[in-house]
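[Meeting: bench + compute handoff]

Bench side (C.D.) handed over the final construct sequence. Compute side (W.E.) agreed to return the predicted structure before the next meeting so the bench team could plan truncations. Sequence as handed over:
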Amino acid sequence: MISPFPDITREVNILNRIIWFLLNILFGGFISMTMLVWVSCDMEMPNFFFPVLPSSFIQSIFHIPWIDMKLIFPCKILFNAFLFALFGFVHTFFARNDVQQYLITRLSFPPLALRTFYLILTNITAWLLMGLWQHTSIQLWDFLENYTFQHEYRGRHLILLII
């Protein structure tokens, strides 16, 4: 298959490649793991997370939700759906080949930086989703259950996992 993007890998020096790689790890790995922890802890950051953070500014970023809008239940669901739709739009829009081609040809965006640009944009919207999420008190699952409950109902959980 012929790629629509020009091959400029020979023109990029090793320092630029290392910088793009580190940005990919930061925005791809760290924020994805943070979102996984947030989802698995019922849309809240666990308490063990905060002492690890180095400064009060960074701790304030991780204290999510950033604001409580005091919305009624249906409005919370609509607002959360809007946040999810915003994330989905940014994620899908910038993954399209024609948008990527436009960034390369019209805006002279370096092709090697496209993945990093995509990761940064999608992770910013994921961070906005986490930070502005309005908790509805609807819990789909709980990964922090007590051991006795897990032991008593292990068979039922195993059956559900198999299904």
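W.E. noted at the follow-up: DSSP finds seven helices and no strands in the chain. C.D. will use this when planning the next construct.
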